[in-house]
């Protein structure tokens, strides 16, 4: 088997729900990210790409019928380049990168273009098709933006609670205070704002044609613990989770080019990092926020290292409480986690977030001269994924 490497990673700015990217179709968002990768690697003949693998958590609207294939065609890739779409909810684009890396390692591909996309703004309402024509009863539209919908009645009720309620249960189990959650959220906004001001994201983020959005739209640099403390709980009257300490609804796309060692000659650039370990883990659906703990443990074991070796961590901040529980369980220095801001500030367009954290991790490792890094993400319905990167810097 050969090794798999990350050669390039880009993303669009992440827009707010109903914000600057609201008029942009998800297949066009994905095409923007794919095009940006190709533009940055002019030596690469697009026909040498063996496959496109994109993540997408919805697929109920304009992202239907294999959005990866649609995006590849819209991006002008040769029609001979095949494509597939992966749905592992929030982990979809990290899963896409993992799938692409396996294809490279087994020799099935030399170069795989991975990533993901989500327009939570444009996610449609769906109406179940009646079993018989002309039903007498009322029918209800269901939003496909986020969370459970059209639930199978055979599912136990405790499994199908809302994502917020699930995290309230996680908060109770691990005794995470509202104050800690708000402090974590403020840190996310502050670090994201500082990173943008310092130019960290300038070469990671590409503009969307026709849209005036220079940076991630959900960042609130003026956030304070006092302001967040005044917000009303969103899921329980006596709860601790608010709109301020959870990730928002967003639109955006990401792309990550993965190849083998010999692909360096085709790509015309050195790889950024080697994919050294992968891990997936599952728990009870309502405990999904904890799943990255074991997923990261598996990835580290497969990479042959431990937490003491890791210098940078990118953990998708679905909720502050979920992130704090994972960091506590890992027993690592919180300062190495999301040092350039996280999803609470940057945003969490479900299918694109895995590609975002992987690209951000690779750059942080290069910038900080870290040999090892971990990207991890929690996933609704009780799953988690993690990837270990090893820097290829001399």
At the first level of CATH, the class of the domain at 5-121 and 248-391 is: Alpha Beta
Task: Give the distance, in angstroms, between the N- and C-terminal Cα atoms.
Answer: 23 Å
Order of helices and strands: EEHEHEHEEEHHHEHEHEHHHEE
Q: Estimate the mean pLDDT confidence.
A: 97
CATH superfamily heading of the domain at 5-121 and 248-391: Thiolase/Chalcone synthase
Binned, the helix content reads: 25-40%
Describe this structure in words.
The chain has 394 residues and is of the alpha+beta class. It has a domain at 5-121 and 248-391: Thiolase/Chalcone synthase (Peroxisomal Thiolase, Chain A, domain 1, 3-Layer(aba) Sandwich). The chain is 31% helix and 19% strand. The protein contains 11 helices and 12 strands. The strands form 2 sheets. Strands 1, 2, 3, 4, 5, 8, 9, 10, 11 and 12 form a 10-stranded mixed beta sheet that branches. The chain has a two-stranded antiparallel sheet with strand order 6-7. Helix 1 crosses helix 2 (67-74). The longest helix is centred in the middle third of the chain and has 20 residues, at 178-197.
Q: What would a concise description of this structure say?
A:
With 394 residues, the protein is of the alpha+beta class.
Task: Jot down its keywords.
single chain; 394 residues; Peroxisomal Thiolase, Chain A, domain 1; ten-stranded mixed beta sheet
List the helices and strands and how they pair.
Elements lengths: L4 E7 L3 E2 L9 H15 L10 E5 L11 H8 L8 E4 L5 H14 L5 E9 L5 E2 L15 E2 L19 H12 L3 H20 L27 H5 L20 E10 L3 H5 L5 E10 L8 H13 L6 E6 L4 H11 L12 H4 L6 H16 L3 E8 L3 E9 L3
Helix pairs in contact: 1-2, 3-11
């Amino acid at each position: 088997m050969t090794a798999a490497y990350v050669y390039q990673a880009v993303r669009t700015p992440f827009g707010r729900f109903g914000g600057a990217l609201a008029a942009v179709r998800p297949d066009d968002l994905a095409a923007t990210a794919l095009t940006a990768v190709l533009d940055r690697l002019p030596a690469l003949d697009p026909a040498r790409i063996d496959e496109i693998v994109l993540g997408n958590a919805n697929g109920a609207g304009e992202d239907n019928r294999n959005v990866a294939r649609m995006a590849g065609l819209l991006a002008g890739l040769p029609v001979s380049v095949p494509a597939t779409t992966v749905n592992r909810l929030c982990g979809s684009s990290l899963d896409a990168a993992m799938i692409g890396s396996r294809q490279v390692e087994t020799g099935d591909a030399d170069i795989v273009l991975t990533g993901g996309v989500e327009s939570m703004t444009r996610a449609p309402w769906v109406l179940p098709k009646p079993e018989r024509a002309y039903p007498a009863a009322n029918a209800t539209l269901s939003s496909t933006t986020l969370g459970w919908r059209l639930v199978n009645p055979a599912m136990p009720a405790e499994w199908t609670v809302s994502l917020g309620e699930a995290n309230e249960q996680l908060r109770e189990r691990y005794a995470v205070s509202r104050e800690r959650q708000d402090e974590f959220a403020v840190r996310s906004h502050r670090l994201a704002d500082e990173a943008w001001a310092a130019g960290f994201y300038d070469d990671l983020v590409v503009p969307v044609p026709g849209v005036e959005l220079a940076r991630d739209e959900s960042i609130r640099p003026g956030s304070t613990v006092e302001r967040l403390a005044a917000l009303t709980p969103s899921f329980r009257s006596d709860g601790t989770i608010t709109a301020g300490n959870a990730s928002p609804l967003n639109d955006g796309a990401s792309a990550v080019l993965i190849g083998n060692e010999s692909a360096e000659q085709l790509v015309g650039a050195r790889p950024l990092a080697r994919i050294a370990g992968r891990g997936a883990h599952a728990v009870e659906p309502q405990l999904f926020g904890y799943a990255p703990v074991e997923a990261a443990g598996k990835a580290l074991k497969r990479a042959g290292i431990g937490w003491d070796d890791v210098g940078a961590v990118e953990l998708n901040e679905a909720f502050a409480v979920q992130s704090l529980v994972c960091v506590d369980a890992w027993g690592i220095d919180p300062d190495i986690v999301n040092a350039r801001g996280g999803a609470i500030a940057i945003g969490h367009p479900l299918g694109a977030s895995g590609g975002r954290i992987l690209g951000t991790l690779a750059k942080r490792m290069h910038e900080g001269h870290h040999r090892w890094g971990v990207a991890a993400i929690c996933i609704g319905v009780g799953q988690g994924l993690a990837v270990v990167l090893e820097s290829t810097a001399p």
